[in-house]
Amino acid sequence: QTVVTQEPAFSVSPGGKVTLTCGLTSGPVSTDHFPSWFQQTPGQPPRTLIYSTKSRSSGVPDRFSGSIVGDKAALTITGAQADDESDYYCVLYMGSGISVFGGGTKLTVL
Amino acid sequence: QPQVVESGGGVVQTGRSLRLSCGASGFTFTSYGMHWVRQAPGKGLEWVAVISHDGNNQYYVDSAKGRFTIYRDNSKNTVYLQMTSLRPEDTAVYYCARGGPYVLQYNWFDPWGQGTQVTVSS
Which of A34, A89, B48, B99 could form a disulfide with B36 if both were Cys (CB 3.0 to 4.6 A apart)? Predict the structure, then answer.
């Protein structure tokens, strides 16, 4: 059973930088997993931030960036703002049409 | 502006069926894969199913295999999720999301709809 791992919670200071990660229990994450990242606030649908590792979705500010760091996918937020306080999810493509979401990271800005 | 809008949610009893619809606009529907993703109350996102751009291929999470069917009507720019033998654990907000184009059809999730609530009562 493949599990996609994310930090359950993270905090960042306003104006600060934070890197959230997305890993696999079965091995390293690569660009072949086409990692995507989403932001979700309570009661709202997910908003796509990053797709295919590092491509930003339309309208997403360049404060958000995606990459592979070591053996994990990473979402870096620079110049954190109060309205960045959200849940962040990643998803990885496992092949054969199957995708798996991580459990999400609750980001607090304080 | 690409957009997807879900409908068809509601309250159903255990063991009954429900069909969700997702209407698409603002893009060439026949070029893109389409996903269903759900979110149980207070929980994270769970990928449920995807269908290829031409409707010829469908893939499911294990818990949906044999009970859910994803299909599309490209003449109506609509993708459906037929759910049968519903269980209380299927209670969730169901989101539709556009996949990528052609070879990337299973790899992207953008944009997302507002979601439709499905509640399965025991």
Answer: B48
CA pair distance A7, B60, nearest whole angstrom: 26
> ∠ CA A37-B39-B68 to the nearest 5 degrees?
110
Q: How far is CA B12 from CA B15, B16, B38, B71, B91, in A?
A: 8, 6, 17, 21, 10
Sequence length of chain B is: 122
pLDDT of A1 > 90? The answer is: no
Query: Rounded to an integer, what is the distance from CA A44 to the centroid of its chain?
Result: 17
Interface contact flag, A102 B44, Cβ < 8 Å: yes
- Across the interface, which of A45, A91, A103 has its CB nearest the CB of B47? A91
Distance from the B75 Cα atom to the nearest Cα atom in chain A, whole angstroms: 24
Q: Cα separation of A5 and A24, whole Å?
A: 6
pLDDT score for A72 = 98
Phi, psi (deg, nearest 5) at residue A109:
-110, 110
Q: What is the pLDDT of residues A18-37, one digit of tens each?
A: 999 999 999 999 999 999 99
Given a contact cutoff of 8 angstroms between Cβ atoms, the answer to whether B90 and B83 are in contact is yes
Smallest Cα distance from B14 to chain A, Å: 25
pLDDT, tens digit, 9 for 90 and up, residues B63-109: 999 999 999 999 999 999 999 999 999 999 999 999 999 988 899 99
